[in-house]
Design brief:
The complex is a heterodimer.
Chain A lengths: L3 E3 L4 E4 L4 E7 L7 E6 L6 E6 L3 E5 L2 E6 L4 E6 L8 E8 L9 E3 L3 E6 L1
Parallel strand pairs in A: 2-11
Antiparallel strand pairs in A: 1-3, 3-8, 4-5, 4-9, 6-7, 7-8, 9-10, 9-11
Chain B lengths: L3 E4 L2 E4 L5 E7 L5 E7 L5 E9 L2 E4 L6 E3 L9 E3 L8 E8 L7 E2 L3 E5 L1
Parallel strand pairs in B: 2-11
Antiparallel strand pairs in B: 1-3, 3-8, 4-5, 4-9, 5-6, 7-8, 9-10, 9-11
The chains are: A mainly beta, B mainly beta.
């Protein structure tokens, strides 16, 4: 059973601040990592993917991956009220009978207040 | 481009009834998945398919069945509905495992 753990929320930050969302995973051979955003009552939406150690930036979003520490994070700069949502970390199983399956964490609820 | 379409959006079932949740994608994706999401919990994989005619169980398959006769369609069948199956169900598809998933809008199911 793959374990994907996210920092417990909810997380509340003021508008304009940096929101930091963290995720750890148990499978050392996982190679593909994703962050999904889910607004209340809506379906998950892919916002970032990362496959190599280091940082990947896309607009106000930066994903950080450290495979040695089995840690992936998402930073949201200049947070906006429209960023208020639940953020789901997801990890691909890269071996064995679960090859290709995507495992999700429980999500971290982010609230950005004006 | 419709993406992944799920029907119905909402449904109330009585205990013991059966129903089929429909999922259709128009992106020619080989990989399709069914997840359920309970409040405060992550998404749990029910069944998945890597192509027409090929299906396999996920983490929580009990009480469900699937079929994949075409690339486009991946229906989920609930037999003998139980209150434990009250959840939001999401269908998803992808071109390949490194491309991320496209999700449908979900079906909110209540079993009473």
């Amino acid at each position: 059973q793959k374990e994907v753990e996210q920092n417990s929320g909810p997380l509340s930050v003021p508008e304009g601040a940096i929101a930091s969302l963290n995720c750890t995973y148990s499978d050392r051979v996982s190679q593909s990592f994703f962050w999904y955003r889910q607004y209340s009552g809506k379906s998950p939406e892919l916002i970032m993917s990362i496959y190599s150690n280091g940082d990947k930036e896309d607009g106000r979003f930066t994903a950080q991956l450290n495979k040695a520490s089995q840690y992936v994070s998402l930073l949201i700069r200049d947070s906006q009220p429209s960023d208020s949502a639940t953020y789901l970390c997801a990890v691909i199983a890269d071996r064995g009978s679960t090859l290709g399956r995507l495992y999700f964490g429980r999500g971290t609820q982010l609230t950005v207040w004006p | 481009n419709a993406g992944v379409t799920q029907t119905p959006k909402f449904r109330i079932l009585k205990i013991g009834q059966s129903m089929t949740l429909q999922c259709t994608q128009d992106m020619n994706h080989n990989y399709m998945y069914w997840y359920r999401q309970d409040p405060g919990m992550g998404l749990k994989l029910i069944y998945y398919s890597v192509g027409a005619g090929i299906t396999d169980k996920g983490e929580v398959p009990n009480g469900y069945n699937v079929s994949r006769s075409t690339t486009e369609d991946f229906p989920l069948r609930l037999e003998l509905a139980a209150p434990s199956q009250t959840s939001v169900y999401f269908c998803a598809s992808t071109f390949g495992q490194n491309y991320g998933y496209t999700f449908g809008s979900g079906t909110r199911l209540t079993v009473v």
